[in-house]
From TrEMBL:
NCBIfam families referenced in this protein's UniProt entry, alphabetically: Rid family detoxifying hydrolase (TIGR00004)
Family named by the database record: Belongs to the RutC family.
Entry protein name: Reactive intermediate/imine deaminase
A Gene Ontology cellular-component term: cytosol
Gene Ontology MF terms: deaminase activity
One Pfam family named in its UniProt record: Ribonuc_L-PSP
Organism: Neopusillimonas maritima
Amino acid sequence: MTKQVIHSNDAPAAVGPYSQAIAAGSGKTVYLSGQIGLEPGTGELVSENFEGQVRQSFANLKAVIEAAGGTLDSIVRLNLYLTDLSKFAGANAIMADIIPEPFPARSTIGVASLPKGAQFEVDAIIVV
């Protein structure tokens, strides 16, 4: 699958590790459900620590992507959900460390709460 970065100078530049838009080549589009920082074996949050939850959420997302026949590079769209938007920079840094460039299109949304008291959730759309 090839991804083409779409960029317009007439819109604000990305302020983090994401692209304004991504055009993906033909293939199968897979819509992934949200993942929070649960340990697969126990179904419990990996930690009360925000960074630990973010990393586990992305690990869970990666496992589902691989089950669909993709890789992290297959992501064309991400949504991040944070219960505390003051931790936005931390989530950005972790995402930039995990997700390969070109970064997918992305939204970050502040939410009042998440299942099981999680602080972070991520969902994605991939093309494989």
